[in-house]
Amino acid sequence: MPTLKHALALCIVNRLLRPFSDQADAKFLATIVVAIEGLADAIEAACEVFLHGDSRTGNFPGGRNAVVEQITEPKKQRALLARAQEPKALVLIFRDEKQVPYQIREFADVYHVIDELDPRVVKAAIYQAFATKVSFRDAQFIAKQPLDDFLVAFRSGRPVERSLRLLTEMDEKRQAAARRTKSIRLEELHGYGQAKLWGLELARDLARYRRGEIAWTDVEPGLLLSGPSGVGKTRFAEALATTCGVPLIHGSYARWQSAGHQGEMLAAMREAFEMAKAAAPAILLVDELDSFESRTIGDTHSRTYTRQVVNGFLECLDGAAQRSGVIVIGTTNHPEMIDPAVLRPGRFDRHIALTLPDATARLAILRQYIPAVIPSSQETRLTDETGGMSGAELEQLARETRRRARGLNRAVVADDVLACLPETQVVPPDRLAILSIHEVGHAIVALAFGRTIESIRIADRYRLDSGQGFDLGTVRLENAGPRRTARSYHGDICVALAGVAAEIELLGEHGDGASGHPDADINKATYLATLVEGVLGFGETLVVEHSRFDYDELSRLRLRSPHLWARVDRLLASRMRETRRIVAENRSAIEALAAELTVRKTMTGTEVSEFLKSAAYVVAAATEFAEENRDDTSARQPRLERVN
Question: How far is CA 614 from the centre of its chain?
C-alpha cells in the first residue's frame, strides 16, 4: 500500500488530471499551485506516476511525451512561457501563486490552487493507505487540520480510530488556545434572537450575583439550545462565557464515551461537572444532548446501558443545581430524542430553538467578517443569494472572499463577495406558485391542530453548488412542548403530509420533492407513523418494539415486521385522507395565503394570523381522533371557517 502522503497526492492528481487519463497523446498544460506546506514534492511525484506510469498502480506505460516540473525558485517569465509553448504534456507546479505568469494561469487547460484538502480526497486516501473507511463527517474534520498533524497522527500501524481521536484532542487544545487569545462577545453576535436576549440578561444577573445583590436561586441556571447544524450553538456558548467573564467547560456524550468503558465514561462526565463547580461561576457546555436518549428505547442490553448513563447524567445535573455558580447549556439537533427527565424543571428550565439567520442578520454577519463596505445597491442581491445559509456557511463565504482578494494581491472589495457567492438559479414563477401552495398547506393544517407558526418562507432562487440541501421552502413551528400524546403525534403526521395534500387537492398531483431523504415530508410522516405504531404504544396495538429513535433503526424495524409495515401504511393512508379533507375545506384560504406568500416570500406567524384575520378567516380546533370513524365523512374535521 502507498504511504498516506503518497496516497493523498495520488488522489488529488487523479482528480485534477482525470480528463486526460485516456488521452495518451494529449499535449495539455496543467498549472498546479500547492499552497499547503509540505505537499508540493508529493504532488510532483504523483504527477510523474500519473503521466509515466508505476508498476504499483498500473497507470500509463512509459513513453508518454510529458514533463513535470516544480518551480522551487523564481524563474524568468520568458523561460516559463517558452516552456509552456513546447509540444508536449506539461505540468508546472508552483508553491506561490504570485510566481505564476498570468498567461500560464489563464491559458492553462487545468489551473488549480491546492490551499485546502477536499474531504472526498481525504476519505479516499485513508482507504488507499489503510484499507479502512472513515465517515464523510470525519473526513471533513480531518481536511481542516494542518497537514503535518494529519500525517503524523495517522501513522502506519496505528488504528484509524485512535488516530482520529488523537487528532480530535489536538484540535480541541488548539481551539481552546484560540479562544483564550481571541474571543467574540455575545453583543457582537447576529441572528440569535431570544437566545441573545437570554444571554445578556444572564450576564447582568451574574454581575448582580457577584455583587451580592441577588441569590443564586434568582439566576436561571440551565438552557437547552436546539437547531440545525451550523446555526452557531457552540459559538453562542463561547460568546456568552466571554461576555459573562466566566470559564467555559466543554463536554459531550461522545467526548466522555471516548474515555473508555462505561465506568470511565461516567467518571469523565463527573470530572467535567466537578471542574465547572471548582471554577464557579462557570458555564458547562454539553454538546449532543440528544445522545442521552430515552431510557425506554432499545433492546435489553442497550436499555440497561442507556439507563445507567442517563441516570449518571441526571445525578451530575442535580449536583450542579445544588452548587451555586454553575450554568449548564445543552445543545442538540433533535430535542425530541432527549430523555424527558433531562428536560424537567430545575435541569434545563428554558428551551430556545435557533434558526437560520434572517436577511438582516446575514448582512450583519458578512459585515462582521469581511472588511469591506457593502453598498446598499448590492444588499438585496447579497441577502437574496445567501438565503438559507447558516452562520457557519457565511463565515466560509467570508474566508473564500478574503482568499480571493489575497490572490489578487489587494484589499477585499464588495465585488469579491459577489464573485464568491454560490451559483444560483431563479425559480420559475409557476414553480414558485407550487412552493407557496405546498408551504401554506403545512401552515394551515398546523394551525388546525393548534400549533403556533413562527414563520413561513419560500425562496425565489436556489443554489447549484454541492449537495448542501438548500430548502426552497420552510414552515417553522414553535416547540410542541415536553409532553407528547397520541393526538399530538397524529397531528404532526398530518402536518408533515399537508404539503403533498395541498398539491394534490389544488393541483391534481404532487411532485417528487416530498421524499427521498430523512428530512423530506413523506419520510418524516413515515418516521412518526412508525413511532406511533411500533414504539410508543399509540397505534392499533399496545405491543411495541424497543428501538432507538433514528431513521435507519425504524426502517429496519419495518422491514423485519410485515405487520408493522401494514399498520404504518394504514395509519399514513388514514392521516392523508384526513389531511386532504382539511385542505379541501380550506381551499380558498390556502389559495389566498399562497398568493400573498408568493409576493412576500417570507411571513412571520403574526403576519399570517393578521392576513387570515383581515380576510375574515378563523381556525377551528381539531377534534379528538381516537374514537373517530376514519371513513365517516360527516365527522367534523379541523377547518378554517369563513366569518361572514
Answer: 38
Q: Which cell goes with 404?
A: 480571493
Q: Return contacts of 580-584, CB within 8 angstroms, 24+ apart.
A: 580/501, 580/504, 580/505, 581/633, 581/637, 582/444, 582/445, 582/448, 582/494, 582/498, 582/501, 582/637, 582/638, 582/639, 583/441, 583/444, 583/445, 583/498, 583/501, 583/502, 583/505, 583/506, 584/505
Distances (CA, A) of 313 to 96, 235, 281, 323: 52, 23, 20, 16
Report phi then psi at 543, rounded to 5: -70, 125
Q: Which among 343-352, 461-470, 606-615 has the top mean pLDDT?
A: 606-615
List alpha helices for 62-192, DSSP H: 77-84, 102-106, 119-130, 136-143, 147-153, 160-181
Whether pTM > 0.90 for this model: the answer is: no
Closest CA to 121 of 140, 108, 107: 140
Amino acid occupying residue 186? L
The model's confidence at residue 642, banded by pLDDT at 50, 70 and 90, is very low
Can you read off the three cell numbers belonging to residue 577? Answer: 385522507
| Cα distance between residue 502 and residue 473, in whole Å | 14
- Alpha-carbon distance of 559 to 151, in angstroms, equals 42
190-226 per-position pLDDT tens digit = 888 889 999 999 999 999 998 999 998 898 888 999 8
Q: Which residue is associated with the grid cell 411571513?
A: 603
> What's the residue count for the chain?
644
Mean of the pLDDT values across residues 497-510? 94
Q: What are the structural domains of the chain?
A: 4-115 (3.40.50), 124-170 (no CATH), 183-353 (3.40.50.300), 359-421 (1.10.8), 429-642 (1.20.58.760)
Residue 628 — very low, low, confident or very high, per pLDDT cuts 50/70/90?
A: very low
Per 3-state DSSP, the chain is made up of helix, strand and coil in percentages (nearest 5) of 55, 10, 35
Nearest of 337, 333, 227 to residue 293 by alpha carbon: 337
Choose between 101 and 639: higher pLDDT: 101
Q: What is the CA radius of gyration of the chain?
A: 29
Tell me the three state secondary structure of residue 52.
helix
Whether omega before 281 lies within 30 degrees of 0, making that bond cis, reads yes
CA distance linking residue 234 with residue 237, whole number of Å: 5
